[in-house]
Amino acid sequence: MGMDSNLYVNLWAKHSPIIISQMKSLCDNETSTYKLSEYEFTSVGNRVKSGYSFAIKLVNGRVISNLSGSAVARDLKQVLLASKTVHSLIKKKNYIVRMNKQFVLIIKCNGACN
Q1: Is residue 7 part of a domain?
Q2: pTM of the predicted model as reported, rounded to 2 decimal places
Q3: Which of 20, 65, 75, 112 is deepest in the core (most CB within 10 A)?
Q4: String of b and e for 35-63 (b: at least 16 CB within 10 Å)?
Q5: According to the model, what pLDDT value does residue 1 have?
């Protein structure tokens, strides 16, 4: 893990109420987006070479993505999985949470509405 361990946890914790709210509102095959601040990420860590983009797949209540190369994604996973609401959601629906190079978080639901 090294020096970049948990660098982004506080940043994700700050944004988690909006992210979780968006996850709750999505039905099958719906997508929502949330623009994040590039400055917030670059002021916390230096990922110029590897970038900040990632994808997390939440399927059948588990994370099935290999996040070993992305501290940004690992820390978001940690924050999301600390939420009882998220645990409940990912047991019922599958999600892909990804961030692109423009720091837009894209949340896609692959599960029915309740």
Answers
A1: yes
A2: 0.90
A3: 75
A4: ebeeeebeebbebeeeebbbebbbeeeeb
A5: 40
